[in-house]
Amino acid sequence: MQMQYNNSKHTNTTTLAFCNLIKTIMMSSNNQRMRFPSSAIVLVVLMIMVSCSPDHHGVVVGAPLVPALFVFGDSLVDDGNNNFLSSIAKANYYPYGVDFDFGVPTGRFSNGKNFIDFIAKMMGVPYPPPFADPNAVGTKLLGGVNYASAAAGILDESGRHYGQRYSLSQQVLNFESTLNRLRTLMPPSNLTNYLAKSVAVLSIGSNDYINNYLMPSLYPSRSIYTPPQFANLLLNNYVQQLVALYSVGLRKFFVAGIGPLGCIPNQRASGQLPRGRCVNYVNQMLGTYNEGLKSVVNQLNKRPGFIVIDRGCCGVGRDLRQVTCLPFAIPCPNRNQYLFWDAFHPTEAANAILANRAFYGSPSDAYPFNIQTMILH
């Protein structure tokens, strides 16, 4: 896996860091530790070392590292959105929060701080307020917002038996609602820079398995899709939402994989295995998904730096989307930053990339082989 740390001054670079959010170290019946690829856990190991260091104590020192932190996900990173929804997936009662500030339950599914709280402290920004909180308005939005919702999944239907929740697609729409509010707080040029330097954390996908695919009595997905097909369905939907977030201005993304769900107490309690054993077939499904997610991250990091992907460089109508270029129309000056030339056709920059991938690309781009291979054989 190629992990990228971006410290460039250019704001049109996408940074996607992938790791497994939960590094589970459990002993199987033969006392052998579960093994994970070291590249998949390096960020988690580093974060645990930092957060447990006696020199830090969670204290923010110096200026914030980023303007804002935007959070998308499920109960692993929800900090209270479901408190405001008609849902049975809530954590706003004791003993949740027993070790949080003043021992007050906040809606976090933890005895204290969750993953995002520690990340926010390390970045030097305040805990992002829940989007659904009516008090999250005005300048309180400037440090970021948390859109995560317990029981939510990449697919809209995942977790529906819990009641209301913000699926990933709805969370993206909620972010766009926040953008409308932010536009009233700063001029467009400042907002563009603000979004490009902010960080988006996405931790979602567990409920698509434990509250969808692995519940055949409530959801038909398992009878429709094989595990690899279901993983591809999730990844395709995930990419759509990542691209949507990119198209409105975000440039730096941290995308978390799914931990070994076959080892969580919920799955161990199925009663189908000897005591202490993980449900291996569940972990194997997730291995397929996580490997696919790594590939997605690599592909997105290799994408050209097109800033404008939802409208043409020339054209008329709403967002310049409707027709081809009018005679003698003045085109946009930054044409290499546009994916589309008019409402239908790619720019020269996009055509160059398409041609390069057709001529030299891997089978994932040109199947079963590229043009160069066809000519030489």
Automatic annotation (TrEMBL):
InterPro entries membership: GDSL, GDSL_esterase/lipase, SGNH_hydro_sf, SGNH_plant_lipase-like
GO cellular component: extracellular region
Pfam families per record: Lipase_GDSL
Gene Ontology molecular functions: hydrolase activity, acting on ester bonds
Keyword NADP carried by entry: no
Keywords: Hydrolase, Lipid degradation, Lipid metabolism, Secreted, Signal
Chief subcellular location: secreted
Compartment(s) where it occurs, according to its Swiss-Prot or TrEMBL record: Secreted
GO biological process, one term: lipid catabolic process
Keyword field contains Signal: yes
Domain of life assignment: Eukaryota
Family named by the database record: Belongs to the 'GDSL' lipolytic enzyme family.
PANTHER family associated with the record: GDSL ESTERASE_LIPASE, GDSL-LIKE LIPASE/ACYLHYDROLASE-RELATED
Name of the protein in question: Uncharacterized protein
UniProt source species: Dipteronia dyeriana
